[in-house]
Give the backbone structure.
Amino acid sequence: MNKSQLIEALAKEENLPIKKAEEVVNTVFGDMEKALIKGERVEIRGLGSFKVKQYEGYKGRNPKTGEVIKVARKKLPFFKVGKELKERVDIG
């Protein structure tokens, strides 16, 4: 499912105009993004949690040339699946 499919499903399920459903989805995702940018953790019970992980820099290799390159430290969003979702998906 992609974002537009989620918007359509919300509109259908809640009998909303597409524009209103799009507003709701954009607001939820936007607030999650803002929280992660501030370094906060986002938890959705029954689904999982999002947080930002910091990775230290390291020396790597360019796979094409074999040249040693320096990879800078970085922060990346990380999702950890919740126990309930993990169990529901593993049923099949």
